[in-house]
Amino acid sequence: MICAKCGALMDQTDKNTFTGRVIREYECRKCGNTDWEDDGIALWQALEDLQEKHEAKVAAQTATNEEASQPEALQPAQKPPASLWQRFTGLFRKRK
Ligand SMILES: [Zn+2]
Fold this sequence. Notes:
alpha+beta, elongated, 22% strand, binds zinc ion, 2 helices, 3 strands, single chain
């Protein structure tokens, strides 16, 4: 990437994919100007989309099978998951 301020070639300093898109960060060694560019959808995001579609398909098939063999009334009631905060404070108390 070329620096918008001085025209020098910029160095890539970082590459983030946490938003699901590849964001490349650049820094100009000459003038210190920083910039970034969007390089499109991250590979893991594309794979995740495919995986989600596949899992949704499998889940739909599994749900249909389970409904046929297990009536809902026979399934044990599920406890709501403890919040992260409760887990954290629980760990803290155990250490004391
Ligand atoms: Zn520059």
